[in-house]
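Record type: monomer structure entry
Structure origin: computed from sequence
Chain ID: A
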Amino acid sequence: MSLRRALHSSVAAICIAGVIAPAGVAATTPVQVAPRGPLDVHVAQAKDFSRIELHWAGGARTITKRDGQVLTLKFNRDANPDIARLRVDPPRWLKTAEARHSAGGLELVLTLADDAEAKVGTADGATYVNLFERPPPPEPEIAETAPPVGEPEPARPNPIPAGGVVQMDAKLVNGQVLLSFPWANPNGAAVFRRGDAIWVVFDAPADLDVSRAPRGLRQFSKVQSFKGADYSAVRIAAPKGTPFFASSVGAVWTVAIGPGAQSQSSQVRIVRDDVGGPAALKAVVSGTTRTVRVDDPVVGDALSVVTALGPSKGVPSRREYVQMAVLPSAQGLALESYVEDLSLSHDGDLVQIGRPAGLTLSPASAGVERAEAELGAPQPAGMPALIDYANWPKTGHGGFLARYNGLLNASMEEAAQGRDAPVAARMALARFLVGSELSFEAIGVLNDTARTHQELLEDPEFRGLRGIARVMARRYKEAQADFSAPILADDPSAALWRSYIAAQLAQWPEARSQFAAGAEAFNQFTPIWKARFARADAEAALALGDIDGADARIKLALMDRTEPLEELATRLIQAKVVEAQGHPDRALRIYAALTGAPVESISAPALLRATQIRMTSGKITPVQAADVFDGLRYRWRGDSTELETIRALGQLYLNQGRYREALEALRSAGQRLPDLPEALQLQSDLANAFRSLFLDGAADGLEPIQALALFFDFKELTPLGADGDLMVRRLVRRLVDVDLLDQAADLLKYQADNRLDGVPRAQVATDLAVIYLMDRRPEQALGAINASRTTILPIALNNERRLVEARALMNLGRLDAALEVIERDTSKEGSDLRAEVVWKKKDWAGAGILFEKSLGDRWKGPGPLASDEEGKLLRAGVAYSLAGEDIALTRLRERYQGFTEQARNPDALRVALSGVQDGRLSVADFGRITADNEAFAGWVSKMKVKFRDRPAPVGLRTAATPAPAKTAQAAAPAAKKG
C-alpha cells in the first residue's frame, strides 16, 4: 500500500505516536490578544431573561425596528463586531443573529424565539436588549355570581343509625378505658362530671346499647343509658379524681377514662354579659347544636346541658355561682341549677345563661377578697426584684390547689372586665407563682396581662417579677431585657439579678460591676439566692483572673446555711479556685468527692475537671481520658459543661490522628447555646481543625479518596475567600494526580454552584470544564462554561474560557463553531488550537501551514526538538503529504532533516518528511501514527501540571473580607463575555 493511500484510508484518526500534542490552553506562553474594536458585544444569561449589551467606543445612535420576531438595530456607524456567541450558542429566547453593512452603517438583526419578547434601551453608555418570555394573555373576567341572600342553613344529616340503636364499643388500652359511640353522621355531645359520675349526653334520641361495657375495672363500676325526647345519655359511675377526656373522629365520639396520653380540650370561657338588662353570663361554644334538660335519677333533679360538635372544648374545673354551678367538662357545658327559673339558650355558637330577674353575680374582686379573708393576697415585696418567700407561696389549710384556684378565678373574673379592669388580682397570682417557683406559669400570666395593659411595662414590680420568672426558666436574654429597663436602673435588688444573668451569659466584667452595685440589697435575699449571687460573682472573678476576689466570694456564699445541693454547687466553684491557685492535687480531691453528687449538674463538671487533671498529671492516658469524655458528653447536656467536654474530646481525637471522630465530635454540638463563649470557642476549634487538615497539610497522609470523603462530609466548614479556594485546589490537585477526575469535578462543581459568584465562579467553572475535557466529557465542559457567563470578566480569563469552549466544541465535532469562537484569537494557544481544528476538518493544506507556522524559526536553533515541537513537525509533514504540497514538504524536509536522528520517534518523523514516493509505512508505524490516545494523554499530563502551578483565581475575596463574592466583580476589569 502506498503512503498516500494508507493516509487517506484513515485520515480522520491520524495523530502522532510517541509525542505530546499541542497544549492549547495548557501552554505557559503569555497570552496576546487582538486590540479592542469599536464595538464590543457582551452577553449574559439570568433565570428570567437574557441580556445583550452593545458597547460602542465613542458612542453611536440607534434606530430600532421590529417585524414579528425579527428585531433590527440600525446604527449610524459601521463596525465588524464579534457575534460568534450569538451565532454559535445563542442565549435563551434568541434563535440567531446576523450583522449587515449598509449605507455606511451597521445593522444587527436578531431573530427572536417564538415565545420571546424584547426590550431595547440604553444604560451606562451602552445599548442593551433584554429578551424574556412573552407573558400569557389575561384571562377574561368572569362576573362573580352573588350568593343567594336569606337562604336558611341546610339541616344536618340525621345522626341516628338505621334501627335507632347505637352500639357502644369498649377497649382497654395502656390502662385507659376507651368507650366509642359510632353514629351515622356527626352529632353534638357533652361530656362532664357530676359528683361520682361522668355523663355523656348526645343531641339525638337514639337507643344506646351499653351491654359491652367491661366489668371489674378500677376506672368505673357501672354504666347506665337513658333516652329523652331530644337527647340520649350515658351515666358512668367513676371515682372522684379519675381523669376523663373526649374526642371525635367523623361520626364517632370516644370517651377516655383514666390517666393516659390524650389531647386536652380547648377551654370555654364564661364571662359577664354586659349588653344590658338583667345580669347574665355568656360563653362561646363552637359548634353548639342544642340545649337540653337531662334528668339525673340519682340526685332527682335536672341538669341544663349544651351539646356541641367536635373537636372537644369544655370547662376544666367547677365554677360556683350564687344560683348555679358550672360542672367540669371535657366537651360542651353542663349547669347545676339552685333555682327554678334558670334559663339556658343559644344563638348560633353564643350560649346565654340567665334568669328573668337576673343572676346574682359577685364583683370581680370577690375571689381575691375570699383569698384575703383566709390568707391575704400576696403583697408586693420591699424592693421590685425581691422574692417574698415567707408570704407569697403560702397555701393555707386548703392546700396548693385551693389557693391556686382561688387566685386564678379572681384573675379570670378581673380579666373578663376588659381593658379598663384593674390588675391587682393578676399581679397577686403572679406573685404566688413566682414564690412557688412556677416560672413558666408566671411568665404566661404576666405576658397576658401586659398585652392588654401596656402601661405595666413601666411598672418596676412587673419588670422585676417577669425578670425573676425568666431567670428561673433560664431565659437569660429575655430576663436581661426586663432588668435593663430604665425604671430599674438604680434599683440595687435588680442589680444583683443583672449580675447573675451576666455571669450565666459569660459577660464577666458586667457581672462584677453589677454585683458591686447591688451590695446594698444582698442581705435582703434568702440564703439560697445569696449563695447563688455570690457564686456567680466568684465565677466572674475567676474568669477575669481575680483569684483572691473569687476566694472571698466563695467564703461569702458559704456563710449562710443552705440546702446540701446548693453547698455542693458552691464547693464546685471552690475547687476551680483552688486549682487556679496552683493546688491541683487538692482540687482533684474536691472534684473526686463531687463526682458522687446526686445531680448531674454538679457531678458532670466535677468529673470533667478531675479527668483533665489526672490526664495532665499522667495518672491516666489520653485514650482513657477520651473514653471518659465520650461517655460524659451524653450524661449531661444543656450548659457550658457539655461544650467544654466536646471541646476536650475533639482536641484529644485530633492529637491522636482520629480526624473524622474529632470533626464529628466538634460538630455534634451544632449551634447549641450560641450565647456562651464556649460555643464560640468550639466553633473556632472546629474551623481550625478543618483548616489544619486541608490547608496546613495535616490530611496529606490520608489516601486521596479518604481525604475527599472527609472533605465532603464536612464541606460546610470550608472557609470563604482565598483560603477556601486554596483548600479546594489542593484537594483537586491530589485527585487529578491520581486520575480521580469524577471526584475532582464534583468538588469544583459544588464550589461553583454553592459558594462562589461572579469572577471567582467563572474561574472555578473554567477549571471544572478543563477537568471535564480531561475526562472526555465535552458536553459537560460546555455546560460549565455556559452556566458561569457574565458580562464582566478579566481579559486573560475571558480568552482562556474561549479556548476551553473551542476545544469542547472541537471534541463534539462542531468544528466550524470552534473556529468561529477563536476567530479573533491571535495568541499562540489560539493558533495551536486552530491548527488542531483545521487538522480535524481534513483541510490538509491549511493544517500544514498552521503547524509549520507554529514552529517558527525553530529549524535555526540547535538541540533536539521538544516533544510538542516534534508533534507539530510530524503533523505538518503528514498534512503537506496528504494535500500534495510537494514544494512545502521539500522545504520542511530540508529545514528539519537534521533533527531526525535525535527525535523520540525517528522512524515516524522520517516517514512523515519523506513524501509519498519515497516513504514506506509499516503496519506498526501506521498504528503508532494514527493513535489518538497517546496525544490525548500528553495533553492531560500538561493539564495536571497546570493544576499544580496555577495561581488562585482572580477577584477572590480574602478570609479577612467576608463580603459576598459578587462584590469581586466590581473590582475586575471589564472585558467581553466568555
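Annotation 1: The first helix runs from residue 3 to 9.
Annotation 2: The first strand starts at residue 39 and ends at 45.
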